[in-house]
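A further point concerns the way the authors explain their paired sequence and structure data. An entry of this sort, consisting of the sequence and the corresponding C-alpha cells, reads as follows:
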Amino acid sequence: MKACMRLMAVVCGLSISATAVADETPERGFGLLTTPIEQPDMLAPAGIHPHIYARGAVAMVLPLDVDVETRTGGSTPSGEDPELNSKIGFGWNAAVGFRLGPGARPDEPGIGYRFEAEFAQRFYDTDSLQDNDTTLQDLDGNIEVTSIMGNVIFDVSAGQYRGYLGFGVGMAMVDVEIEGRSDDDTNVAFQIPMGMEVRVTENVWIDVGTRFFFVPGLDVDTDLNELSVLTADVQIGVLIEF
C-alpha cells in the first residue's frame, strides 16, 4: 500500500513539473544568465521600397541677364555682345514619378532616389539691352518657355523634413516677341532642382525650392537674332506620395 502511494506521488510531481515547463517562455542559457528566444518579425520591411508620387507648384521666375545678338549686329561701347535684362515673371510646373525610399513608409529616415517626368511653363517680359549695367535700348517684349524634362533627384529624409538636390534634362519650346516681331525655337534644356519638403501628413509634403533653368543657343527672327534663357525659379508646391 505504501509503495502504491509513493508511486502516485511521483507521477503527480512529474505532471506538475511538465505543465510548469510548458508554460514558460523558451530560454537559451548562457552560464548564469538566460535570454528569451526572439521570434522573427515576418512583417518587417526589407530593401528599398518604391513610392509613386505626384506634385505641382507655382513659381516666381527670376530671369538672369544673358548675352544676345541683335538683328542690326551693332557693337556695344565695350565691344562685347549686349546683355538682355528682363523683368520678374511667373510660372508653374507639375510632375509624376516614383521614389525608391529606404523603407515601407514615405516618411522613414534615410536616402531616397527619385525619377520623374515634369511639364512646366514660364512667362516673363523683356526690359532693356545693357552694356556693363549701362542701358543701351529699352526693349518691349515677352518670352514664353514650355519645357518637358526628365529629372533625377536625391533626397535625405529626417522624418518630418526632407532636403533634395537633382539634375534634369529635356526639351524647351521658346516663343519670343520683341517690339512686335515674333518667332520661336526649340532646343535642349537643363535644370538643377533643389529645396526642402515638410511633411504635413504621412503622404503629403509642402515643397519649397529653387530651380535653375537653362536653354542655350536659341535662333529667332526678331530684333534679337540669338539668345539664351537662364532663370532661377522660386517655387512653392505640394507633393502627394503613396
In short: The longest strand covers residues 134-157.
